[in-house]
Amino acid sequence: MEQPVLHSTFVIEKSYPASPERVFEAFSREDQKRRWYADRDGQELTEFSSDFRVGGESVLRFALGPDTPFEGVEIANIDQYHDIVPDRRIVSAATMSLGGKLISIALVTIELVPTETGTDLVCTHQGVFYEGSGGPEMREHGWRVLFDRLAALLPA
């Protein structure tokens, strides 16, 4: 039997050859965030919005594609921004549901650290995962894929 509640923290670090200002812009501008965070091949995007301000929400809803065991089932990610320091930090609380069932809640901190060659992004994900969530391994994999997609958007 799957454990009913699992707590987990993971940290992902990624370096980008772009300034912290440029990386921050990819999070703060709705059109740019949509390109790396929301638009996905093989999945039907049903809603995306990003009210990027303290107290604002980012909403992503999409139907899973045929390459998954949950074809047509909706995934919803809703993030509320709690702390934003331009070009340095973004802290949000996120919920994820699958087919209308809550599967996880997380506190996500994105830190942008300037380097000689660009920016080091540090993502700390502190999560509570419920039955059917796929656990922290699946979520960490998802963030790694998203950060690779972000790299494709940023200048080399």
Q: Estimate the global geometry from the Cα principal axes.
A: globular
Number of helices: 3
Order of helices and strands: EHHEEEEEEH
The portion of residues assigned to helices is 10-25%
Unreliable spans are none
Output mean pLDDT. Answer: 93
Strand content: over 45%
The radius of gyration over CA amounts to 15 Å
Provide the structure class.
alpha+beta
Number of strands: 7
Q: Mind describing the biggest β-sheet?
A: 7 strands, antiparallel
The span between the termini is 47 Å
Strands side by side in the biggest sheet: 1-7-6-5-4-3-2
What's the structural blueprint in terms of helices and strands?
Layout: E1 5-16, H1 20-28, H2 30-38, E2 44-50, E3 57-63, E4 74-85, E5 89-98, E6 101-115, E7 118-130, H3 135-153
Helix pairs in contact: 1-2, 2-3
Q: How does this structure look, described?
A:
There is one protein chain. By secondary structure, this protein is an alpha+beta fold. It is 24% helix and 49% strand. The protein is built from three helices and seven strands; from the N terminus they run E-H-H-E-E-E-E-E-E-H. It has a seven-stranded antiparallel β-sheet, covered by helices on one side. Helix 1 crosses helix 2 and helix 2 packs across helix 3.
